[in-house]
Amino acid sequence: MIKLYSFGSSFGVMDPSPFVVKVDAFLKIAGLPFEVIAGADNLKLAPKGKLPFIVNSDAENEVKIADSQAIIEYLTNKHKLSLDDHLSPAQQAQSYLFTKSLDENLYWCLVYSRWILDDTWQVVKASFFGGLPWPIRVIVPSMIQRKVRKNLYGQGLGRHSKEEVLAISDKSFSALSTLLAEQDYFFGEQPSTFDATVYAILCQFISTNCDNEFNAKAKSYSNLVLFCQRIEKLHYS
Ligand SMILES: N[C@@H](CCC(=O)N[C@@H](CS)C(=O)NCC(=O)O)C(=O)O
């Protein structure tokens, strides 16, 4: 049985982490049975201190794997999945590099939009930390926000103004919209791993019930909205 360790649903999506949703959507598209174990405490069990990770156990052994990319590669090899078999070698290479762009650039724009924009931060704070007892509820959010701000500054995105981060986000939304064009999926009529990756990050902007300029920008691309709805109709309803 495959167990996927997640934070748990927030803002109307399966998980606030695009990396968790990526693995969840991948498993659903691949049709593999699995169980989601939700809870912020899962971080304490995480081999690399981040979510997601999976535990795959059978009669003989138990394997624990962290990092969405490593998880997907492990599951693809272990279960001989054919999700990307219809992609040419060049498309497989593009899928990898596009994934890294979303994971390493658009992801940080999402982090900025949630943890730095003041109005959204209030919503995030209530959703992530509202259940903690007083005074932890007051102390912990600003401690973690300081850490996230430092990470954003170290990564580089945190050195830009809000307008610049919004413009950087829009470059990705616009590129994704151009790549998808009128197709159902990014590499044609059949889904691939890359569709799980794109859905995972786009749903954080398009399908969440929290409104800000970043979300509005993503929602202005009608084919991206339809793409999210397509995945949700098949796998999340
Ligand atoms: N490269 C990892 C990134 C995972 C990641 O950044 N997870 C974040 C949530 S989006 C996390 O667990 N952060 C907790 C922390 O840093 O303490 C992957 O692809 O799974």
Number of helices: 9
Helix content: 55-70%
Mean pLDDT: 97
* Backbone CA Rg: 18 Å
Bound molecules: glutathione
The order of strands across the largest sheet is 2-1-3-4
Order of helices and strands: EHEEEHHHHHHHH
Rough outline: globular
Low-confidence stretches: none
CATH architecture of the largest domain: Up-down Bundle
Number of domains: 2
Number of strands: 4
Name of the top-level CATH class of the largest domain: Mainly Alpha
Distance between the termini: 23 Å
Q: Strand pairing plus helix content: what structural class?
A: alpha+beta
Strand content: 5-15%
Largest sheet: 4 strands, mixed
- CATH fold-level topology of the largest domain: Glutathione S-transferase Yfyf (Class Pi), Chain A, domain 2
Characterization of the model:
The protein is of the alpha+beta class and 237 residues long. The protein folds into two domains: 2-78, Glutaredoxin (3-Layer(aba) Sandwich), CATH 3.40.30.10; 89-235, Glutathione S-transferase Yfyf (Class Pi), Chain A, domain 2. 58% of the residues lie in helices and 8% in strands. The protein contains nine helices and four strands, in the order βαβββαααααααα. A four-stranded mixed beta sheet has the order 2-1-3-4, with helices on one face. α1 links the parallel β1 and β2 (34-38). The radius of gyration is 18 Å and the shape is globular. It binds glutathione (GSH).
SSE inventory with pairings:
Blueprint: E1 2-6, H1 18-30, E2 34-38, E3 53-57, E4 62-66, H2 68-78, H3 89-115, H4 118-129, H5 136-155, H6 162-180, H7 193-206, H8 213-219, H9 222-235
Parallel strand pairs: 1-2
Antiparallel strand pairs: 1-3, 3-4
Helix pairs in contact: 1-7, 3-5, 3-6, 3-7, 6-8, 7-8, 7-9
The structure holds glutathione.
Glutathione binds next to α2.
